[in-house]
Hints:
Layout (H helix, E strand, L loop, with lengths): L17 H6 L1 H7 L18 H22 L8 H29 L7 H35 L8 H30 L2
Helix pairs in contact: 3-4, 3-6, 4-5, 4-6, 5-6
Amino acid sequence: MRASRPAVHPVEAAPPPPAAAAEGPEAQVEGAAHPRGVRMKDPPGAPGTPAGLGLRLAQAFFAAAALAVMASTNDFPSVSAFSYLVAAAILQCLWSLLLAFVDIYALLVKRSLRNARAVCIFTIGDGITGTITLGAACASAGITVLIGNDLNICAENHCASFETATALAFISWFALAPSCILNFWSMASR
């Protein structure tokens, strides 16, 4: 019976080869070949790193801020693009908080999140939420320009709130892009 593998693997440095350890540090620096099976360090911003946690928290913060600003207006449900932005911000906030908790766990137990399945799930999830968030931000930006510049009815609407929520959604997407790219790079480099 095969046992299941955990999704989080420890990353430890391999012991130096016996010949190199006996010759001293000069021999290790000059002609040392990396031992087989040793993984390189995770790049900053990858899942399970402090920078990755920072990116996830930034994504969640800006998505929550966009949601709060848009929900503070009473007429956002009348425009479907703004309702789409609210739904996308909720999804982005939940996804980012979920992965922030995973990053916190990985940092607390000092484990790496370079498992192929985990990286694949992170990449697909980041791609989906990123596409939805960018689409919602673009749609909201288009409606905001229509209301403000083309129809000139900002006096009747909350244009400043709409613009602020749209800008925060774009910032949330900009915080998501490095995570998605790093996850895709990690997945593709296997």
